[in-house]
Amino acid sequence: MKWTYIILLIASVVIVGCTTEPINTPQQPRNVPQQSDVTLQLNNTSEQKYDPVINPTDFSVDITNKYFKIEPGKKLRYKGQTEDGLETIEVYVTNETKTVMGVKTLIVWDRVWLDGDLIEDTKDYYAQDKKGNVWYFGEDTAELIDGKIVNRNGAWLAGIENAKPGIIMPVNPQIGETYKTEYYEGNAEDKIDILALNEQLTVPYGKLNNCLKTRDYSPLEQGADEHKYHCPEVGFVVLEVGLEDNESVELVSVEYNAKPSPSTIAKEPEKLITKITEEQAKAIALKEVPGEVTDVSIEKKFGKTAFVIEVAPTSGPETDVIIDIDTGEVLGVET
Fold first, then answer.
1. DSSP of 69-91, one letter per residue?
2. Which residues contact 116 (CB under 8 A, 6 or more apart)?
């Protein structure tokens, strides 16, 4: 979801066991080895192999964890001011399910708008084990500009290409514990540290008590660390604060038995076409700022769709070179 958890589009990975049956429809896993129990690798901070054993019969889509309580029809809305504009997020719990590794998971639809334009569309897959831990089994996601797909980076599904599910919310978190929330090597390796259990805070939604505070981070995304706050009165995240830029996203409203906001994109949106290639954009960036390219993205910058080429220069701070996707013009350089 970067909204950490945090969407509608199908990733370009091979998908298995996909269903959209109502959550009360019984479904028996097929050809799945039965284990005696869910093997939990909690507080796993070592370099040992992460390989949780999943028994489908130990899971349910009845998700009641007090910090992560989701039920069909629950809709949460968030807002936050970023350097790029006003970000609005809607998290909607659908009544659909998806079977992953033989486990029936509940689909949560997560969308992000920037100044009214949809920029991320994701569907996340969750299930709760019989002990009360909430597990994250993957996501289908897409980033968009002007209704067209820019990329599907971050999409993954447990059981495909050795990806593993992780615990996104333990039933009884303790200060000092660390959890892998997902594991798809080189693509999705998010973790959380439990920092506090009795935080008080005020957001536009209201004043909240006894909140869980975590540090959410990934070794794949340096500088993207966040503090998140989950409060039992809401049963979900209510505040996110970026540790590097101090930008925050706050809970504004919660509705039950609600409908999702209308979709603003086609079911099968087009892929964004650029007139210059990514390799050409990198060459232009390195001519402007000699060094090593560390990241490439496509974003709206200065009112135009642009490549943002992140460069670690031979000297000086990390720099973004912003290049028009059609003309190759350097629109700006940011440090």
1. -B-TT-EEEEEEEETTEEEEEEE
2. 88
Say how far apart CA 17 and CA 32 lie, in whole Å: 12
Tokens matching residue 279: 């390799």
CA dist., res. 335 & res. 332, Å (int): 10
- Mean pLDDT, each 10-residue run in order, the chain (335 residues): 38 38 38 39 58 96 98 98 93 98 98 93 97 97 88 91 97 97 92 97 97 95 91 98 94 97 69 88 94 89 88 90 93 91
User: CB under 8 Å to 103, separation ≥6 — which residues?
Assistant: 29, 54, 56, 59, 127, 135, 137
User: How many structural domains comprise the chain?
Assistant: 2
Residue the block writes with tokens 């992953």: 100
Residues 249 and 323 in one domain: no
Looking at residue 290, which CATH number applies to its domain? 3.10.450.40
Task: Tell me what pLDDT residue 264 has.
Answer: 64
Q: Provide the whole-model pTM.
A: 0.77
